[in-house]
Amino acid sequence: MNGKRPFEERVFARFDALDSAMRNTDSRLQKLEIRAYDTKPIWEQALKEIVETRRELSKRLDRIERIAHETRADLRDAEDRLDKIETKPGQ
Fold this sequence. Notes:
It is built from 1 helix and no strands. 0% of the residues are buried. By secondary structure, the chain is mostly helical.
């Protein structure tokens, strides 16, 4: 025998210590899981806002592109009118 207590007592004491450590770990894990669930709605809302922002940005970029095309078309029309004025005979 090693020490004053019998082998079996030492083994059971060790098992008790391991059991206690596992319960402590389980308790800590449960607290972390609860905290993770608490932040889940925050992340869901953040993702929803990101998606909405992307959609809004896409709509705005489409509008900007449409305006750019209209501006180019107007510029071409103005250039065509200028060309006609510049090439009129007798001037």
